[in-house]
Write a structure and sequence with these properties.
The structure holds three protein chains of three kinds. By secondary structure, chain A is an alpha/beta fold. Chain A contains 16 helices and eleven strands. Chain A has an eleven-stranded mixed beta sheet with strand order 1-3-2-4-6-5-10-11-9-7-8, sandwiched between helices. In chain C, strands 2-3 form a two-stranded antiparallel ribbon. Classes of the chains: A alpha/beta, B alpha+beta, C alpha+beta.
């Protein structure tokens, strides 16, 4: 391994060298910051990074080096630079959620996911740009300016985790954390040609993730490869007593899914840091005709409508062919209530958001604008100046659907339809289907400024939002390019069956090989 | 008076702070003495990214309260967000319970009507919620100071049926409720310290009319008597309004204790739309029926049952058991004394007499009182078997309070053991007759009513040790 | 049902979002347009859908009633807009005349 090809290195290649003392954590920090500078990751160009502090990171790296020299095992992410979406609380660097209302706010506590990354040896190098409070699909809604897609700077990187996807795509870090509410990891992963995983609801602690819609939010992982995503997720998954909605279900060693076999023994969630640190580092086997033997892949007709972009359909068909050639059976299925997902989502998510964002009131932290006309005027001035137009729109929408007289028609109805959408997935997975395959997005990355109608923008989530509503895990994997822009394919599995999801994803990645980026 | 033509209809909402060490959803202390904003953390400050986790003990106490009030515990209850802006409400919503509360359908027995019928006030529901912080408006000019130490402290809200018809009835309900909660040991139930707060919903209607009138909500009462006064005042206001052809407007009113009147709340009523929805940061609260049964079996004896039992077991009157059961700790103290001494009446006299005086003097609580029940029982026995006189016993008791020593030891140390020796008593009697020649002459001349006075002098001279029976006998024989 | 301008002003007040007149008109149109896409839900039969969501995942976990020292780096003053004598300081309610009103 050499730092010269830093941008090509996966976490699984960096960590062993650092743990063995062959490469220093400081070299990794310097390589990451150099790459960010070279590609123009800063505020004026691609605008990927909102906060970073090279000196502080180097200091942290030196401390890590000292621990390595004293014989401490640093963990499976030893010395791996990781970027964090700016709505995940971190010590040391600000957490602004891409919003003016939190400009300069440094959290006095750290998200569980970030703490677990550090416990596994990761180095947090940057907080990445995002749509304000994760509301958006293009990272154009940031109070700190839009992020540009590193693959085509005229285009958006997707959103809302656009900065994290771009950081990985640009080679600034091999792994980044994002967050999902309706597709905010998978959609930018698809637009930037990287892997993005949204785990099952409850799989990763939300403690420290600034809430957008609590019943849908999950922290997700972006990686250049499936392996990076699996390693990243393994490092942060598992029960957390600080999050009442986190699950105590066992966390398997996801990277063993690369071997193409069913899930091995489960891992005790109490010892995840230790177990990850000692987990084997399997090499993905070369794909063969039996790699996916016995696996049934469902192809839901609602996700392949006649109106689907023919080029995207072609890429999906190629991926489905690969599944078949690796021994899988592809079955036509139906998720009949999926077309209702966008209306359901855009009632429930704003409703929860209107409540979750009430705490930004200028009283205890963040922006305060006080026109000197009493408390109510302070609230209104603070919140109208602090929130951008999309956040304002969604707070109002959410307030409306919860308000007296409308609750039953909107919120309650949407909640019931959400249950029906989840039932569709349950029915498919109990009928012998192991994984569902769909396009991640209906289009490739679009030019900055191209979409101005809010509802048209919401339709970007049309294929991703159902997994959030149903709470099931899903991953976007690069499956090719159309007019030089990446296309993502989505694999969805049953609740807490991330292992099967990774197994299919490893196989697809290996099966496509270089075609994934062609 | 016009109000004679109307009937008062009242339901009460009582907020009770549960006796936990930490807050409802975070590990911060519930201690009240702390400096402002000392007991806060990311969760109760509502910092971005913080999440609530429910306190197990708060659930236990809420369930205990609900069972003690005869409520049905729902196996599944759901927390909900009540959304409104106020600077002492950090999240911009209060975590409460709305359409699926912890418990429903209880009742409180408050006594008997004049005709002897049972008076019961129904409990509509009991739910869990968190407290807000404190807004202090009078500390700085033009500004409000916010202290969030109280934010997130666990509460239960007990909502009564509109079964209350008089202000006195409201007072009786509140006193009974407070007593039950004290017995259940779920709360300090102190209105002064804010661990019990009462809001009243009140309407009026002609007697016999089934339909309820338009109600108002009255808040800001700081004592039970303030609740009664506020209800009377608001009743009179509503009656007068209707008599003058007006209509009662649904609104929130604040009781002004200084002016003894209600006035409209400053918060705009029209803007109240709490937009309740299920709290997505918490899963439903699911309670195992076996656990609930176990909690039910573990309930302490409640005031009504205890009163009946004490009256029959110890032969006490209604008034006497009322006094003893006012405070559960007092009743327990009494019972230990009565049982150990084998004399309920004597135990009652001591507990409500000397013990109360001593407690008042030292402003101690009965639970920490220096004279333990066994020691007091011993003292009662010493009096009963004639070892010491009743007069001496009071002095012994005073020493027990002062020194904490057992009764027998004090009696011995002080030489207070009763003296029955004829010679000694005769000497004291002679001395008294000599020292009070006037009274002695009149007594010996046949003025019998002076005997008591003379016995008193003898008792004093003997420092309470003389057996009063013998003194009386001796005097009678002298006075012939 | 289209959203009216009055609706927008009402919910803006509930949400403590200052909305000026031209913005209120825009938002009325935007919200009406978005909500028109939601009408499709009214045609879905949900009569048989159970109301308590999330029960399948089990009850909410409980924590023991013990004091865990709050983990916070830095003081409240490091992020609070205005503090004095340990209190957060806010402008007084414009309508507020005396000190009695507060709380849940």
């Amino acid at each position: 391994m050499s730092v010269d090809n830093y941008t090509q290195l996966g976490a699984a290649q960096i960590a062993p060298g650092v743990r063995a003392g062959k490469t220093s954590p400081a070299e990794m920090i310097r390589a990451s910051f150099k790459r960010a500078a070279d590609i123009g990751g800063g505020p004026d160009e691609l605008n990927i990074i909102l906060h970073a502090d090279e000196n502080a990171s180097l200091e942290e790296a030196e401390q890590m080096q000292a621990r390595i020299q004293s014989g401490t095992d640093i963990g499976v992410l030893a010395g791996v630079p990781v970027a964090i979406k700016d709505n995940i609380a971190s010590l040391g660097l600000p957490t602004t959620c891409g919003s003016k209302i939190l400009r300069g706010y440094v959290s006095p506590f750290e998200a569980t996911a970030v703490a677990r990354l550090r416990a596994n040896g990761a180095l947090i190098v940057a907080k990445t740009n995002m749509d304000e409070f994760a509301m958006g699909s293009s990272t154009e809604n940031s109070a700190y300016g839009p992020t540009r897609n590193p693959l085509d700077v005229r285009c958006v990187p997707g959103g809302s985790s656009g900065g994290s996807a771009a950081a990985v795509a640009a080679g600034i870090t091999p792994i980044a954390l994002g967050s999902e509410t309706g597709g905010s990891v998978r959609q930018p992963a698809a637009f930037c040609g990287v892997v993005g995983v949204k785990p099952s609801y409850g799989r990763v602690s939300r403690y420290g993730l600034v809430a957008f819609a609590s019943s849908l939010d999950q922290i997700g992982v972006l990686g250049r490869t499936v392996d990076d995503a699996a390693l990243g997720l393994e490092s942060i998954a598992g029960f957390d007593k600080l999050d009442s909605t986190s699950s105590d279900a066992d966390v398997p060693i996801y990277r063993l899914a690369a071997l193409g076999k069913p899930a091995p023994e489960a891992r005790n969630p109490d010892t995840e840091a230790i177990r990850i640190g000692r987990s084997p580092v399997p090499l993905p086997p070369p794909p063969g005709p039996t790699t996916l033997e016995g696996v049934v892949i469902g192809k839901p007709k609602e996700y392949f409508p006649d109106s689907l972009d023919p080029d995207i359909r072609r890429m999906c068909d190629r991926a489905l062919d690969r599944f078949r050639s690796m021994g899988a059976t592809v079955r036509e299925i139906s998720l009949p209530r999926s077309p209702l997902a966008i209306p359901v989502y855009y009632i429930l998510a704003p409703a929860e958001a209107s409540s979750n964002l009430a705490r930004f009131d200028g009283v205890r932290y963040g922006l305060r604008v006080d026109p000197g006309k009493g408390l109510k005027a302070m609230y209104e001035a603070t919140r109208s100046e602090g929130f951008g137009p999309e956040v304002t729109r969604r707070i109002l929408l959410g307030t409306y659907v919860l308000s007296a007289g409308y609750y039953d028609a909107y919120y309650k109805k949407a909640q019931a339809v959400r249950t029906l959408i989840a039932d569709d997935f349950r029915a498919v997975f109990t009928s012998g289907v192991h994984a569902i395959f769909t396009p991640t997005t209906p289009t490739t990355a679009f030019p900055i400024g191209a979409i101005s109608d809010p509802y048209e923008m919401y339709l970007n989530d049309i294929f991703t939002v159902t997994a959030n509503l149903a709470g099931v895990p899903a991953i976007s994997v690069p499956i090719g390019r159309v007019r030089r822009l990446p296309v993502g394919g989505q694999i969805i599995t049953a609740h807490f069956d991330e292992y099967a999801m990774f197994r299919v994803a490893y196989a697809l990645e290996a099966g496509l090989g270089a075609e994934a980026h062609q | 008076m016009s109000s004679g033509r109307y009937e008062m209809v009242v339901g009460l909402e009582v907020h009770v702070q549960l006796k936990t060490r930490t807050k409802a959803f975070c590990g911060c202390s519930t201690d009240f003495g702390a400096p402002p904003n000392a007991n806060v953390c990311p969760v109760c400050l509502a910092l971005p990214g913080a999440l609530p986790v429910l306190n197990e003990h708060a659930v236990e106490l809420a369930v205990r309260a609900a069972l003690g009030l005869g409520c049905r515990i729902d196996p599944i209850s759901v927390f909900a967000r009540k959304n409104y802006f106020y600077p002492d409400l950090p999240k911009g919503y209060q975590i409460s319970q709305f359409d699926q509360p912890l418990a429903t359908g209880g009742s409180v027995f408050v006594g008997q009507s004049e005709k002897g019928a049972e008076l019961r006030i129904g409990i509509t529901r009991l739910h869990m919620e968190e407290d807000a912080g404190k807004s202090i408006h009078d500390r700085y000019p033009g500004e409000t100071a916010i202290d969030l130490n109280r934010a997130g402290v666990p509460l239960i809200e007990i909502v009564s049926e509109p079964d209350i018809r008089t202000s006195a009835g409201a007072g009786a309900y509140l006193r009974t409720l407070k007593q039950i909660l004290q017995y259940l040991d779920v709360s300090d139930v102190s209105m002064e310290e804010g661990s019990l707060r009462v809001d009243a919903n009140i309407s009026v209607r002609p007697p016999g009319q089934a339909k309820l009138g338009t109600k108002t909500e009255v808040k800001n009462m700081n004592s039970f008597s303030a609740v009664e006064k506020a209800l009377d005042s608001e009743f009179a206001r509503q009656c007068a309004l209707l008599d003058s052809g007006g209509m009662v407007e649904q609104q929130t009113l604040l009781w002004d204790g200084a002016r003894e009147t209600v006035r409209p709340s400053r918060t705009k009523e029209g803007s109240h739309d709490y937009r309740y929805f299920p709290e997505p940061d918490l899963r439903p609260l699911m309670l195992d029926s076996k656990w609930v049964d176990h909690m039910r079996k573990d309930l302490p004896e409640l005031p009504a049952a205890r009163k009946t039992r004490l009256a029959t077991e110890y032969g006490l009157s209604v008034v006497e058991v009322e006094q003893l059961t006012a405070d559960p700790a007092l009743a327990e103290y009494f019972e230990e004394v009565a049982r150990a001494a084998g004399d309920g009446k004597a135990a009652y006299n001591w507990v409500m007499g000397e013990v109360q005086v001593a407690l008042r003097t030292s402003s101690e609580e009965i639970g920490r009182f220096r004279v333990r029940p066994a020691d007091l029982a011993q003292l009662i026995k010493l009096v009963r078997d004639g070892t010491i006189s009743h007069t001496a016993a009071k002095r012994v008791f005073a020493q027990m309070v002062a020194t904490g020593k057992p009764a027998a030891q004090v009696a011995a140390d002080e030489g207070l053991a009763q003296v029955g020796d004829e010679g000694a008593i005769a000497t004291w009697v002679d001395e008294v007759l000599n020292e009070h020649p006037g009274e002695a002459a009149r007594y010996l001349a046949g003025e019998k009513k002076l005997q008591g006075v003379l016995v008193g002098f003898v008792m004093k001279k003997s420092k309470g040790r003389a057996d009063p029976k013998r003194v009386n006998q001796l005097l009678s024989s002298r006075g012939g | 049902m289209p959203v009216t301008r009055e609706d927008v002003l009402h919910i803006a007040e509930l949400a403590r979002l200052g909305v000026d007149a031209p913005r209120a008109d825009e938002l009325t149109k935007e919200l009406s347009a978005i909500l028109s896409h939601m009408e499709v839900l009214s045609q879905v039969d949900t009569a048989t859908v159970p109301t308590t969501a999330g029960v399948a995942a089990g009850g909410t976990p409980l924590r023991p009633d013990v004091g865990v020292p709050a983990l916070m780096s830095g003081t409240l003053a490091s992020f609070a807009p205005k503090m004095r004598d340990g209190f957060f300081i806010v402008p007084r309610l414009a309508t507020h005349e005396d000190s009695s009103e507060s709380g849940a």
